[in-house]
Structures
1.
Amino acid sequence: EAKRRGRNRAVAYRPAFDATLSRRLQLIHQLRDALERDEFELAFQPQVAADGEIAALEALVRWRHPARGLLLPAEFIAVCEDSGLIVELGRRILRDAVWCQRRLAAAGFGHIRIAVNVSAAQFTDDLYDDVAQALHGRPLADGGLDLELTERVIMDSPAHAIELMQRLAGLGVSFSIDDFGTGYSSLAYLKRFPIQRLKIDRSFVQDLGQDASDAAICQSIISLARALDLHTVAEGVETEQQRDWLRERGCEELQGYLWGKPQPFETLLPALQHGRWGARPHA
Ligand code: C2E
Ligand code: MG
Ligand code: MG
Ligand code: MG
């Protein structure tokens, strides 16, 4: 009976499944072409320190689709991840990120980190080689390259993660835990990871000031980080109220639309050079 029901159900869902599958295959095909044609680019969003200075720029990938315009990661990253294309895409992102950090350094902004998101599928021993290759034997300023990893990525196999992160740290890489608070980190392990920062997930920042439990969560992440000698970066800061709340409680760095949407390096660098960044009203 269960089997027959199961079969019926399978039949009922088949057309939808086929449509999804064929869309997916088509997308994989397009993504391969896009890699070949170099249609991916990076947008950067500042992580702003308490004094208003930029501490880091997070690299966020976009796909300049020939017909559909500029596409956000939500449209393609998941398919890149489960098709394995993320490995090649990730290599290019690392190479571009290193190049941008070198240009920052050449312009006198070498203290600004470039932060790069790393997916689970990239977080293998090959990542070491990819970073080493991107650096091309010329190290950046210590911590000049920051890798953002989620709790899920590092907790999957913590012992292996620690070892890989330690080797990467030998290349001068620093680490942030992205979307912190949404995963299931073991606090015992957290202490053992060679990490520098916890990034408070946007979902907790969003309702600061309205939602008492979100405030409590943000406060505990900041306290936890302090106890572990880590810094906190809050994501998704959109209002002055959120900014002030977080700064008052000692959150070291803030990131969000309050300082603008992610933008191309080619517009950010001149803004930095001409001091226009510091002149912003929201700093
Ligand atoms: P994430 O690493 O947590 O990045 C933060 C996301 O929040 C970015 O979305 C950013 O544009 C957005 N954001 C920043 N400030 C605000 C704000 O004030 N309000 C709101 N509502 N959103 C804000 P984006 O660029 O669409 O990226 C989404 C996710 O895609 C990233 O989340 C990251 O997980 C992934 N991703 C982006 N770039 C890369 C990449 O180069 N490689 C990999 N593996 N994943 C990437
Ligand atoms: Mg991130
Ligand atoms: Mg995040
Ligand atoms: Mg996220």
2.
Amino acid sequence: DAWLLRNQQIAIFQPKLQTSLKDKAQLEEDLHKALESNSFDVFYQAKVDSKGQIVGAEALARWFHPTRGLISPADFIPIAEETGLIIELGKIVLTKVCKQLQLWFEKGIKIPVAVNLSARQLINQNLQDDILNLLHQHRLPNELLELEVTETLLLENLDAALPILNAFHRNGIKVSIDDFGTGYSSLAYLKSLPLNTLKIDKSFIKELPNNENDKAIVEAIAYIAKALGLSTIAEGVETKAQLNFLQSLNVCCFQGFYFYKPLPVEAFEDVMNQQITHEYID
Ligand code: C2E
Ligand code: MG
Ligand code: MG
Ligand code: MG
């Protein structure tokens, strides 16, 4: 813990996915077509509290490719970023989520949904207006939409991002730092930015509770978050043993296959309905 606090830095590298150039050019062309033909959908993955009750969800983009089948966002988001198509794709995801939130809200289901933002979206000065307009058009309380940004993305674009983050904060839209611990993070920024939650990256969760280094890192993150008044959520929770360790720390919420996978909207609704009959959601 002390090491992290003294150096104010955590830098951990993850191997990037390799796609061949030819593959990439083809995917790029397909991506253009997919945006025109509405081939994207949004899956929802539940976030649960320590009792296993659903407290929110994350929206995850899915691309149904005509010949390749379902393509992972890990493969198409980077291409969408490079080509600028992410702006359009981002709008599609935000719009779909707001439509869904409205349907749920009208049925009395008030479940906050988090949308992932990419760098290009975050430096676009229209972002705050676009989002606030979407919420207004769908007659939604702002609190129902949350946003997730990665720390590297945020720090590399801080000048542009700061006024946008401030606007979200003023308007009651919560922002989480996604994949926390994997970027070049300066802990100093955490106290000065209007953030709500740290999402502990799944690479630190994977080998819990056996890996001593990961245990120390996760403990340190939970400690820092508490000290700075931020909440924490662990992503990629797959086993009971991981959950037990995390529950012994100041970790509020969990997300992972141990609880729920990202699900198509109908399947996610089934899961929520089961909880509603157990008198959970107010
Ligand atoms: P992320 O935001 O960190 O999302 C978590 C990823 O971990 C998701 O992968 C999710 O399916 C996966 N995951 C959840 N639980 C578990 C688990 O228990 N074990 C394991 N091994 N994995 C788990 P997915 O859906 O493939 O998305 C990958 C990344 O793509 C996301 O990482 C996010 O950065 C990006 N992404 C997804 N949708 C969007 C979007 O609409 N816009 C933007 N800009 N990025 C998106
Ligand atoms: Mg995320
Ligand atoms: Mg993440
Ligand atoms: Mg990730």
